[in-house]
Amino acid sequence: MTIDLRSAKPIIKKLIYVVVVLVILVLGIGFTGIRLDPISAGRTSISRGAMLIRQVSFGQSEKVDIFNTHDGYATTLVKKWGPFWRKNTTTLSGKASSKMNIISFINFDDPKLGSGTVLAVLSHDKNVSYLRAGPNSVKYSIKPHVVSVLSWNQLLTPTALNAVAYSKNNRTLYKIKNAKIKNGIAISIPIKFYSVN
Which bin fits 71, alpha (ψ -120 to 50), beta or left (φ > 0)? Predict the structure, then answer.
């Protein structure tokens, strides 16, 4: 039996073409942060060994993952992309060294998928008992040295969060601020808790 190489050339060319396209697809998906699950998609832009603290779901299509990394904290917003998940945004914060820390603040507004806000705080102040935050000033219990994650199904700016930390005796200890007034002009500063004392 003899093989006519002239008739096999079109098949070989098609096979090479398919292999090249598959390699490009696999590499493209890998470099763009597209993965099969939301946690893997979130990990694409952060350091290896990051530990997931909490995942907050907003419907079936958006998730916010908060990770503890060796450098501090990372928060990723991942969105459904067909059968895959794709990292949309990553925010990073350093180690929590203050008495009252914001380790994550992320908000989004997507006309197709909805809106959401996530605030994660870490208190090293044993006097902080609870936090009131959000449009209805909901009360959230705070434990020292434990990350507390608060979320809302709406877009909230740092000002709209109006987060205030209280002692068990209802004394105001800290407030979130992200702007200060200087000569009548609001100057943006990093969102963080400021002591009221």
Answer: alpha
CA–CA separation, 161 and 97 (whole Å): 22
| Unique residue bearing structure tokens 């998940």 | 85
Each residue's pLDDT, cut to its tens digit, for the chain (197 residues) gives 565 656 667 777 888 888 887 777 666 666 667 878 888 888 887 877 889 999 999 888 888 999 998 888 988 888 888 888 888 888 888 887 889 999 988 888 888 778 899 999 999 999 999 999 999 999 999 999 999 999 999 999 888 888 999 999 999 999 987 665 555 554 555 688 989 97
**What kind and span of H or E run contains 47?**
none
Give the span between the Cα atoms of 143 and 67, in whole angstroms.
Answer: 19
Query: Are the beta carbons of 117 and 161 closer than 8 angstroms?
Result: yes
Q: Which two tokens stand for residue 69?
A: 């990394």
What pTM, to 2 d.p., does this model score?
A: 0.77
> Are 114 and 104 in contact, with CB atoms under 8 Å apart?
no
Question: Which two tokens mark 147?
Answer: 């990350």
Q: How far is CA 48 from CA 44, 173, 183, in A?
A: 9, 36, 45
- Is residue 87 a contact partner of residue 74, using CB atoms and an 8 Å limit? no
